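Q: I'm writing up a methods section and want to include an example of the input and output format. Could you take the sequence below and give the corresponding predicted structure tokens, formatted cleanly so I can copy it straight into the document?
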Amino acid sequence: MQATLPLLEVSDFPSIKRGWVQTLQVNLGYLCNQRCLHCHVNAGPTRTEMMPDSILDMIVPVLKLRGINTLDMTGGAPEMHPGFKRLVRAARAEGVHVIDRCNLTILSEPGYEGLAEFLAEQQVEVVASLPCYSVENVDKQRGEGVFDRSIAGLALLNQLGYGQKGGQLKLNLVYNPQGPVLPPDQRKLQDDYKRELFAKFGIVFNELYVITNMPIKRFGSTLISKGQFKPYMALLKDNYSADNLKQVMCRSLISVDWQGYLYDCDFNQQLGLPMKSHGMLLDLLVSDAAGESIVVADHCFGCTAGQGSSCGGAL
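A: Here is the clean output for your methods example:
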């Protein structure tokens, strides 16, 4: 795999600072039952990195001490961590809103029976990857048979009350473009998703999050090998919008890797760009990170191009 950080470090991206931290985004490990081209963490079935219990047990105390109201769990497939359910229960017992970034196919993986019911019981918000509403596009990006298993997962979540209008169980979908292009208008694509998924499969959901592909890790390496890295960076920079700076997710989020190291966002985590003054999760038990300067590089243009991009979709 070709390194992208040397192509991103020299940057003219504006300096920004963090405000009040509302979300702790925790990567529980890189083990995943899928291996997707656009995955910026290079997750897959052969990865062995998993958060140790000593770090996992610090998460809820940090949430309580810092008044952080949202725990956003990622991977890999976060549900494959042996401590996943324990962490969910502990966070929910403290009234913390919990988000599970779910690939949907994990719901039908052997050994994970009852996972969907557990998520519903704990009122966990599910943010589910579904890069398209057609079988051809999804299976091309994520592997043969993934689309059908994803639809089955969505149907199961719907049966449990997820995605229903006026309901409390939130089900949001995530769209990533398949190539080096900016994603389409989020509202219009959401309307298309809702129409097609309901008409063909009876599936309902709350919102669609449209996320720009970052020129890092697996996707960035592919761009380099195809000679598309520089044109893609030019596309991001040409579509930079200063208005998006006010809402970029790093202003209100801290990212934690599986070893407990802290980063300004998940993308900085994968590039190995740590926070400036808080090195480990343990440090958040000593002081908060409000007002701290955020580490930036050229990949940050991905969050500010066009309609903007974050883990919660367009800005």
